[in-house]
Amino acid sequence: MKICVFGAGYVGLVQAAGLASTGNTVFAADVSEEKLKLMREGKSPIFEAGLEELIQAGLQSKRLHFLHVADPAFERALRESRVIFVAVGTPEKPDGSSDLSYLFKVMDQLSSLEGELRDKIVVIKSTVPVGTGDEVEDYLRKKSKFPVVASNPEFLKQGSAVQDFLKPERVIIGTLDPEAMELLAELHHPFMLKRDRIISMSRRSAELVKYACNCFLATKISFINEMARLAEAMGADIREIRAGMITDSRIGDQFLFPGIGYGGSCLPKDSHSLVAQGKALKEPMKILEAIDFVNRRQRAWVADKLEEVWRSDFKGKVIGLWGLAFKPNTDDLREAPSVDLIRRLIGHGAKVQAHDPAAIPNVQKLFAKELKEGSLQLFEEPYDALGGAHALAVLTEWPEYRSPDFDKIKVTLAEALVLDGRNIYDAASLRKKDFTYYGVGAPGGGPKTRPKLKTA
Fold first, then answer.
1. Alpha carbon distance 125, 338 (integer Å)
2. Which of 145, 218, 279, 417 lies 20 to 30 angstroms, CA to CA, from 208?
3. 17 plus 164 within the same structural domain
4. Is 307 inside any structural domain?
């Protein structure tokens, strides 16, 4: 089957390469010549396990093609393709709502094609406000274009996106058109060999289910983080509490890891968007508003703890950071807690030394001024980032940080202070080595520290 994909970003690129891997001929289009050049060379513009190999296989088979959206060859591909996926960005506006301008630029381009497009299925992969499919359909009809408009939300986790696409837990198809449903189900059939996980529903329900899933995950993260703050104040240990919670089959163990909050391109943006959508309908999303408040507060945990320990005196202080991406196995800095922390620490007059296995190129672009001034320094080796530092703060739980040489850390640091923003270390073990250790939701301090219960 010939397929077109608008947008060769995170979602569109995985979609295009994945569909090409099952025998389809896929034309992925983007506006960035720099990205297109990389992809034509078999290189992935994003850090994602297995994606580069999938791209290279598609190019070698001549089933995967990368074109500029204005290339006449892409217009020909659009005319010849039955299915057109739309995976363009829908960035967040200042009020939390979604900017759909890129989506409607795609619709303008489709409107320029000859004919009424009745044989086309336009599939929206982008996360869009509920009712966007209706708006798109009306917009195209006013231009005398009548394709089927379907919703097919993505559920890719950064760091495992390729496997999520090839072995999906579910595929949601939002359309009431039986022919379109049958064709889209057929397209996803190769990924359903063990069992059928395709769920059909109305377009509006498909648009909302993506928000519902992401906002529920955000809820779990913020809940455990709020419990962590309470546990710390009460002299309890959130890790022990979590162990007691997750044995309950009604609760489970996923997304219940205390830390310094969530980031990335999905959970923050989707929760803000759903709050804005609720506000527009006079249905306030009070839980989601609280979740966002908790997350914003939790992202400041490291800086708040350092202010407490050093009594807000950062003069001459150097902080070593391990992990800058918002989560392991990605180079994505969008809404990463590290970005806010670096700015806050430098604003206090401290110097930051940092390491990350994948995100350094993106950090260099984002903090060019700070790097030039010397207030931020980046290192290729994790221990080098700790030289002369007065504290180590772990922000991302990359595997290589999980079992470090603590004796080496101790002699490298100027002060044996560890702030474990992801709770990957054993507090008792570090205190035996004479570290002052703080974990999220656990009694903190040095070897002789005894937790005190805060009373009203």
1. 29
2. 145
3. yes
4. yes
In a domain, residue 454? The reply is no
d(CA 355, CA 398): 11
What DSSP assignment string belongs to 208-233?
Answer: HHHHHHHHHHHHHHHHHHHHHHHHHH
Closest CA to 210 of 144, 148, 258, 277: 277
284: DSSP letter:
-
Name residues whose C-beta falls within 8 Å of residue 447's C-beta, 6 or more positions apart in sequence: 431, 432, 434, 435
3-state helix, strand, coil in the chain (%, to 5): 45, 15, 40
- Of 168, 201, 234, the residue that ends a domain is 201
- pLDDT tens profile 341-368: 999 999 999 999 999 999 999 999 999 9
Q: Note the pLDDT tens digit of each residue in 400-416.
A: 999 999 999 999 999 99
State if pTM tops 0.90. yes
- Is residue 219's pLDDT more than 70? yes
Residues 144 and 277 reside in one and the same domain: no
The residue written with tokens 């150097």 in the block is 318
Show the tokens assigned to 133. 């499919």
| Distance from C-alpha of 166 to C-alpha of 336, rounded to nearest angstrom | 27
Shared-domain flag, residues 40 and 178:
yes
Spatial neighbors of 258 by CB under 8 A, at least 6 apart, are 224, 225, 227, 228, 238, 239, 242, 423, 440, 441
Domain check: are 171 and 235 in the same one? no
Q: 315 in a domain, yes or no?
A: yes
- Per-residue pLDDT of 30-64, as tens digits, reads 999 999 999 999 999 999 999 999 999 999 999 99
Residue 200 one-letter amino acid = S
Host domain of residue 32: 2-201
**CA–CA separation, 222 vs 228, rounded Å?**
10
Tokens coding 160: 């495992």
Q: How far apart are CA 36 and CA 221, in angstroms?
A: 36
Question: Which residues form the catalytic set?
Answer: 266
Order of strands, sheet of 376-378, starting from the edge strand that comes earlier in the sequence? 376-378, 351-355, 318-322, 391-394, 417-420, 436-439
